[in-house]
Specification:
The complex is a heterodimer. Chain A is mainly alpha-helical. Chain A has a domain of about 150 residues: MetI-like fold (Orthogonal Bundle). Chain A contains 10 helices and no strands. In chain A, helix 2 packs antiparallel against helix 9. By secondary structure, chain B is mostly helical. Chain B has 2 domains: about 40 residues; about 230 residues, MetI-like fold (Orthogonal Bundle). In chain B, helix 4 runs antiparallel to helix 10 and helix 8 packs antiparallel against helix 9. Classes of the chains: A mainly alpha, B mainly alpha. At the A-B interface, helix 3, helix 4, helix 5, helix 6 and helix 7 of A face helix 1, helix 2, helix 6, helix 9 and helix 10 of B.
């Protein structure tokens, strides 16, 4: 108990760090994922190739390697003096975006073919078909996998903590170096992660219920 | 996606428009790549000598050793996690309530803790700082065991009820039913998912970097930081080489998963392997890297 009370400020900072990192990179991942999924089904071949490359490369690279690139190549070569939070968001967001893109694409695959054909028959363009007809229907099948992707993202942000970003893992490292018992730290840190993952789970349960429409 | 489902066959106007998009898109991507290359060039990252470090026997041996230690951890963790998964799965499906509950709590708990924290706690707390390898193997075993257990459970639940009833009717005992009827079919139908999770295990071995286990990523960092050529550190080169190794390993495993799936499809034994994806039960609570692919039935928008 003492570990928590003595270092409440540190724990709070770590918890908020993890929370912010998760939220901001989730937003980035969703936006990028939607765009990349759109690229992958678009009528323009170079965009399709770009989308496929993006997904395959990012999904098959360990996130740790991405962090290594983000923290040791990018600041040295491209943007000197960039904020470490931004770098962490980019690494997590880009990595997760490839999973979001795959989820969205397979969601698009479950929309009955007649829908797209009907949209085309009344003269809609590709963008209109996607925006008005296909994507809204795909949302329902995309939401459950998205929740597990975001939970995975929450857990992946721990790697940012290892690269001197203040988050829960970073706090556990600091406290363990200060000589506190790792078992007790572990319990409190775990609790912090459980709060976030269960919040995501509940939020998406709600969303799923809202989106459930009798067909 | 068959190209004609989401959009019409382009007419002359659309062809011109698509061409413009193609050119603009390609230029944008090329421009970005070009800009990055320009910056890299300015910092002297494109000097030919930087690649020379990979000609030294020492560096090559380093890479090989690192690759072997990554594969060693992967092999150990893969085997242990599968064994552990069988144990957990049996416990999870047990008829005894307390056993079942222990398994549920254990699986849910360790699946929602970041693997890095489990590994770190094992390393610092239990195993001592001298044995990073076993901390890594144990952490991977616990985490992936939990995920694989849920995969197996989904497989067991998918076995038709008649199979179990027939086995009991023949007079088999509970252990026999589980061992000779349920698990063989569950493993067979879930093999693609199990292999996909093994890809995740392989990628997660890179977390050994954090606890100073000399695997691929660790040696990449070492090489990039310790062999400056004319005052320039070959970071980009090492990232390219090691990234390629990781991607090749992961794609090989992913390809194996696809191969198993397709081979199973062709077989006439009656058990069709599920698509290489996480089952719903797993997806609901979350693993590390899920690639859920909802079944696309015939007549849907499918590639």
């Amino acid at each position: 108990m003492n570990v928590l009370l003595d270092n409440l400020a540190l724990f709070r900072e770590g918890f908020l760090g993890t929370l912010w990192l998760t939220i901001v990179s989730a937003l980035l991942a969703v936006v990028l994922g939607l765009v990349i999924a759109g690229f992958r089904v678009s009528p323009v071949p170079p965009l399709r190739i770009f989308g496929t490359l993006w997904v395959n490369v990012l999904r098959n690279t360990p996130l740790t390697l991405l962090f290594l690139v983000a923290f040791f190549v990018v600041p040295k070569v491209l943007f000197p003096g960039i904020n470490s939070f931004v770098l962490a968001v980019c690494a997590c967001g880009f990595y997760t975006s490839s999973f979001v893109a795959e989820a969205v694409r397979s969601g698009i695959n479950t929309v009955p073919m007649g829908q797209a054909e009907a949209a085309r028959a009344i003269g809609m363009t590709f963008t209109q078909t996607m925006r008005i007809v296909v994507l809204p229907q795909a949302t329902r099948t995309v939401v459950p996998p998205l929740s597990s992707i975001f939970i995975a993202l929450t857990k992946n942000t721990a790697i940012a903590g290892a690269f001197d970003n203040v988050d829960l893992f970073n706090v556990s490292k600091t406290l363990s170096n200060d000589g506190y018992d790792i078992a007790v730290i572990f319990i409190w840190i775990t609790l912090g992660y459980l709060v976030i993952t269960y919040a995501i789970n509940g939020l998406f349960r709600l969303l799923e219920n809202r989106l459930e429409v009798a067909r | 996606m068959s190209a004609s489902v989401l959009f019409d066959v382009p007419g002359p106007k659309a062809r011109v428009r698509n061409l413009i998009y193609s050119v603009v898109g390609t230029l944008a991507v090329l421009g970005l790549v070009g800009w990055v290359c320009y910056r890299l060039y300015n910092k002297g990252q494109f000097e030919g000598e930087l690649w020379d470090i990979f000609n030294y026997a020492g560096i090559r041996e380093n890479i090989l050793d690192a690759l072997l230690s990554t594969l060693k951890v992967f092999a150990l963790a893969g085997v242990f996690s599968l064994v552990f998964a069988v144990v957990l799965c049996v416990a999870r499906l047990s008829d005894h309530k307390p056993v079942r509950w222990v398994a549920v709590v254990f699986i849910d708990l360790f699946r929602s803790i970041p693997l890095l924290i489990t590994i770190f706690a094992l390393w610092v707390g239990i195993l001592g700082e001298m044995t990073p390898m076993w901390a890594l193997v144990l952490g991977l075993t616990i985490y992936n065991g939990c995920v694989q257990a849920e995969v197996l459970r989904a497989g067991v639940n998918a076995v038709p009820k008649g199979q179990v009833e027939a086995a009991y009717a023949l007079g088999l005992r509970k252990t026999q039913v589980t061992a000779s009827v349920l698990f063989p079919q569950a493993v067979r139908s879930m093999l693609p998912s199990i292999i996909s999770q093994l890809v995740v295990t392989l990628k997660d071995t890179s977390l050994g970097f954090m606890i100073l286990y000399p695997e691929l990523l660790y040696s990449a960092r070492l090489i990039a930081n310790n062999t400056p050529v004319g005052g320039v550190y070959p970071t980009v080169q090492t990232v390219i080489v090691f990234g390629a190794i990781y991607i090749a390993l992961c794609l090989a495993l992913a390809w194996l998963a696809k191969f198993v799936e397709q081979r199973g499809r062709r077989s006439k034994a009656g058990i069709v392997p599920a698509e290489a994806k996480e089952p719903k039960e797993v997806a609901a609570a979350g693993g590390t890297d899920l690639t859920p692919v909802p079944d696309a039935k015939d007549g849907n928008l499918k590639d």
